[in-house]
Specification:
Helix content is 45%, strand content 9%. By secondary structure, it is mainly alpha-helical. The protein has three domains: 77 residues, no CATH class; 102 residues, DNA polymerase, domain 1 (Orthogonal Bundle); 174 residues, Intergrase catalytic core (hpI Integrase, Chain A), CATH 1.10.443.10. The strands form three sheets. It has a three-stranded antiparallel beta sheet with strand order 1-2-3, covered by helices on one side. Strands 6-7-8 form a three-stranded antiparallel beta sheet. A hairpin with a 6-residue loop joins strand 2 and strand 3. It starts with 8 loop residues before the first strand and ends in a 7-residue tail after the last helix.
């Protein structure tokens, strides 16, 4: 055993994935902290043994070469190859309780004190739980970075130079996309605005940043699904997973967001006589109640094929077990089912579950549905927002060019 680490060993649990484990002495607490690297799942035992042996050797080489918690270990996507660099700070997984034990969250001069105060105020203002989670995640990562990089966490000593180092670390070590970098900046700026408002500091250091580092360009936005692929998906999902297909139809026809808006929809929210779907303000993204219109053909299908009228109006339309029930499906349930089917059918990864909402808008535009009707169906607050949405997410087809452009073969 080395002075500051233990030799890596292989664990072969009977009911679980194999993993390599080792410990490294934390330079801050002086205690050994255990780490794991999982062996890629492989039904072939010989191949799995080889992967495990490679990981053991690579980990040992990394430790002997001087890797410590203030360096980065990165595993290349889709492989077990380890890269050891000194370009950034390694932030080990740290629970709230553990982090507070080594921080000064109760010290009003400490950044974490103001981060928690900022989150508490956001909660008191009724911000959505997903927004709160975003605030907590980004502020905690900045706090951890300050801690493990041995940078001052005194809020009055955090200046634009320190913040620039943090953003550079997000780009170089974390490999984050540019939009994510800007999200970090927005959250930190809002937090430091609170510190300024309380007159602890005079100038917000985030607002003083002029040249922000540019993150990676990652185009991960959902794409509308082509008509040909829609047919492929329909023929498979309609028989293999009817509940998922009904979920998709609601997204496509009613343009309802797949999160709380659709997942928590109740049977009684669907009015098959007036062809309306009610979206409560508590579930709506903009916190305003709205109604989406059901196309005639879909309303008939809900009544005669899916038979939703036979269920308790208070039950969730998308309940556990594939039918309406008192307990809704989990947050990631529908997306996980969608991803498995998409991979099974060898479809592009840019076809995301949210793509069906874009697909519905695209089909409506092609059918000459007016921008005002799309505004109401999507629940947008203005036509301008709908125009931006259709232009950025769907692209706009110029019908004059499409239909009237001369053909070179006919000149």
């Amino acid at each position: 055993m080395g002075e500051n680490y233990t030799l890596p060993k292989l664990c072969r649990p009977k009911n679980g994935r194999w993993f390599v484990y080792y410990s490294i002495r934390c330079k801050i607490t002086g205690h050994l902290r255990r780490f794991k690297r999982y062996v890629p799942a492989n039904s072939n035992k010989r191949a799995r043994e080889k992967e495990a042996k490679d990981i053991l050797m690579e980990t040992l080489v990394a430790l002997e070469s001087g890797w410590r918690p203030d360096m980065s270990i990165r595993v290349q996507s889709g492989t077990s190859k380890m890269q050891v660099t000194t370009s950034g700070i390694y932030l080990p997984y740290c629970t709230e309780k553990k982090f507070r034990s080594i921080s000064k969250a109760k010290d009003p001069n400490h950044f974490l004190f103001w981060a928690e105060k900022f989150v508490d105020r956001a909660i008191s203002k009724g911000k959505k739980s997903k927004t709160i989670q975003t605030y907590e995640s980004k502020l905690r990562k900045f706090s951890l970075w300050l801690h493990y990089s041995e940078t001052s966490s005194i809020v009055s000593e955090i200046d634009s130079h320190i913040l620039l180092e943090f953003f550079n670390w997000l780009v170089s070590s974390e490999k984050l996309a540019n939009n994510t970098i800007l999200d970090y900046k927005q959250v930190l700026a809002a937090c430091f605005d609170l510190v300024c408002k309380e007159k602890v500091i005079v100038v917000n250091p985030v607002r003083e940043l002029d040249d922000m580092p540019i993150g990676l360009e990652k185009d991960c936005a959902p794409r509308p699904i082509s008509n040909r692929d829609v047919v492929v998906f329909r023929e498979y999902i309609e028989s293999a997973d009817p509940q998922l297909w009904m979920f998709i139809e609601f997204m496509c026809y009613c343009m309802i967001r797949p999160g709380n808006e659709l997942r928590l929809l109740r049977v009684g929210d669907v009015d098959l006589y007036r062809n309306l779907v009610k979206i409560d303000k508590d579930r709506a993204k903009n916190r305003k109640q709205r109604h989406s219109t059901l196309p005639d053909h879909f309303a008939k299908k809900l009544r005669y094929d899916y038979g939703i009228e036979q269920y308790n109006p208070d039950w969730y339309l998308f309940g556990k077990g594939g039918v309406p029930g008192p307990i809704p499906v989990g947050k990631n349930n529908m997306n996980n089912r969608w991803v498995k089917i998409r991979e099974k059918l060898n479809m592009p990864p840019l076809y995301k579950l949210y793509s069906w909402k874009h697909t519905g808008n695209s089909l409506a535009l092609d059918a000459d549905v007016s921008i005002y009707d799309l505004r109401d169906q999507n629940g947008h607050s203005s036509v301008a927002i709908t125009e931006i949405y259709t232009r950025n997410k769907l692209g706009m087809t110029n019908k004059a060019i499409k239909e009237k452009m001369p053909n070179l073969d006919e000149l």
